[in-house]
Amino acid sequence: MIIIFIYKENFFYDYVLNNSVEQINKAISDNKELNYYTVKAPKKNGVRVLNCIRNNTTLYHLQSSLKNNFLNKIPIAEPVYGFVKERSYSNFLAPHIWENNQERFYLRLDIKDFFGSINADSLKEVLKYYFKADDKASREMVEILIEIISLNDALPQGAVTSPVVSNIVFRQLDLRIQKYCKKLNVTYSRYADDLLFSSTNNRIHKSFFTKMISAILKSRNFKINASKTKYSITEISLNGFVVGSNIRISRGKLRDLKRVLFIYHDKKPNRINDFLYLLNSNDFNGRSKVNGNYFLNNSTFAPTKS
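-> structure tokens emitted (306 positions)
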């Protein structure tokens, strides 16, 4: 991959952002928060509040240009599978399948408030490396870039640029974790805030291993969500998938999928709301309820002003 470095201001404004300095400054200074709307997305044991960029704003187009013309050209670490083109959750699990029929030990670590932990200081520390103009010009361009991609001094989980930026910020940590794991004969992969480790030895189940990973993460202001740490032997179940001697759909997820198909073919609902009513009248062991329902219409997440 060819890395683009920014040597001149006109290249940054005219090519990368494809906008005039005046328009850019207006977009990032005029009540920037109004460019976003909040969405409540379901998650286990509650909802996740997202700040999503409105696609009819200048800020949205600035983020899109920045992503396509610059950020996508910055390399990320090899063990990363989340927010990467042509890589899936199944690809994230694949490195942890048994080899030579040897059972493995598994460890899943979850990062607490992944996007919110990436603040302006972290962004500046990482992104300044790619600006090679004189000190004053580089500093100004980095500050403008950060203004474009951040909201309330953090990375909003709904901006065009947030996924790719998170992988760029995390790159150094991925490389450090990968190097440490290689010494211990441990396989490592990451999907956004999910870190998965496996090995034919039980070192990853020892406290020293998690402490080292935690120390590496803290160097960039990330913290492990201890309540989601998961240890397993032989195979591990994550988000409806099981990895071990192979990768398969978990029994709970498969049972729920069969139930959805059965209800549809049995009742033959004509409208989506009728189908949702039928689904929510049943029990689904592999899903969590949001506002008392397993399945929600898109209108449940209608955008509201930030």
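The first helix runs from residue 9 to 16.
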